[in-house]
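User: For documentation purposes, I need each entry recorded in a consistent format: the amino acid sequence on its own, followed directly by the corresponding structure tokens. There are two entries in this batch. Please keep commentary to a minimum and don't merge the entries.

Assistant: Recorded as requested. Entry 1:
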Amino acid sequence: MKFRIVYNTRFVPPRKTAWVLWPFVLFRHTREEVSDRLYRHELQHVYQIKRLGRLRFYWTYIWQARKYGYWNHPYEVEARKMETTPLTLQEIAWRDRGKIQL
């Protein structure tokens, strides 16, 4: 599964700083401005897509967003819990190359 990381793009919803829209991980800011915490959060969504599959992830994301809202959304809760986990060398390489290969 391949993802492409795009920095400094306007294709992020208003009031958001990043968005995972398969096959892209989109960041509103430049690579230098994206914190490890935000990168880890979005990377967790990539891992969720890999674990669940694209259709199931997006379908259940939308359904659960309607049910729980953003703050209590199970996928968002999981991603927030992972934000302080240090990046691996592989994840740092993905960030710097702009490509994720799972």
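Entry 2:
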Amino acid sequence: MTMSVDLRRCLSDRRGSVAMIFGLSLTVLFGVVGFAVDFSRAHAVKLSAQGAMDAAMMAAARSQSLSDQVVEDTIEKFMSLVDSTKHGAAALSTVGRVLDNGTTVEGEVVLRMPTRILNVMGYGYIDVKIESRVMRGLGNVEIALVLDTTQSMAGSRLDSVKAASSQLVDTLFSLPDASSKVKVAVVPFAQYVNVGSENRNASWMDVPPDTTSTGISCRDTWPNAVLSNCRIEYYTEYNDGVPSPAQREVCDWDGGTPVNVCEPYTWTETWSGCAGARSNPLNIKDEQYSTRIPGIRNVSCPSKILPLSKSVSDIKNNIDAMSANGDTYIPSGLVWGWRSLSNRAPFAESADDPATAGGAVRKYLVLMTDGFNTRSPRYPEGDHEGNDSTLANQLTRATCDNIKADSDSKIEIYTIAFEVTDEGVKDILRYCATPGGAFFDAVDYAKLLSAFGEIGNSVTVARIAK
């Protein structure tokens, strides 16, 4: 009887078991907490580093000269900016690779993070592996270079624009798939845009026939005029709104008795491709070409527009052929850049073809100008011989609004102010740049090159594949 009672007491006494179970439970609990805390820290490091790794790979993929070393150097640069040092993580290894003839860029970095709680259990660190892969390639791209070729661009300015825009063309066509994916239009503009005399009879143009008329013109002359007190007079002259000092000789004169002279004359009206403006608001729209665009005769306009082209030689030859002449009417360049990118009339080069088949087309308009509007349209004449800069500025903003509202074309606008000191002009160009595009204030040639270079890098978008 006593033995059975003692046995029962022994079997029911669990004080030692509880202590052992509690000890084991505490160890497990400590491990779980340590795992949760340290792996949460490791996860934070990975999230932070992954963004930097993806950004590094995109930057490397856009490099002009690409190699394994360039990829590794770019990774290290971006990783040095990662906010992971608060967790004590440090790079253990970095690998960069360029594969598939330059179309694939891969990167891998291993970060070693010291533990805080798991260290007590003998686990002193956690290795965090971050990988990223970028597929280089343009996709389907169409870009219109809308370039100011007014008189104020004469000389080194125009030479700079030719060099910078040609460099952009080289960037666009440097990637492996560019020859079948990229199209570029060149739209030189001044007071007018030249659509090409071959479009005289196009359904969207309204050009009067060239004419020649003859007649007799009579005028008074003063063959016996006497000049005296001749001197040099200094004054300011304006070319495309840009002031410059000038001088001329002026004299006092006695004309004497006038002599009337009559002479035959020949007057010729010819069209050289200069496109005017339809009545507002069609003058700044890409629609309703049953209302045709007036062709303006006997005016000067830039070299001919090049519609979207895949020929690098044609594109660069068109850029090289640009010359500076005329005054500034920015909406003319904008609207023809827009028209060159849409698949509506007047141009059809943006329609589906081998260059755009099999995927969406990204469209960009790059506007470069060195100054403000000095000309405006006149109605109903349809020419750009007006002098209302306020109207022209309003039409510039309205044209940009219309381009942004074109949901079919989805054009991103980049604007470049080249050596512009007028803040009003810069404000208009900032306004015109779309959220996907950008405004560049190019104060000199170096900044101009940088602007075109950044646009090229932005357009040649690579894709994160991993």
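Summary note for entry 2:
The CA atoms of residues 276 and 383 lie 5 Å apart.
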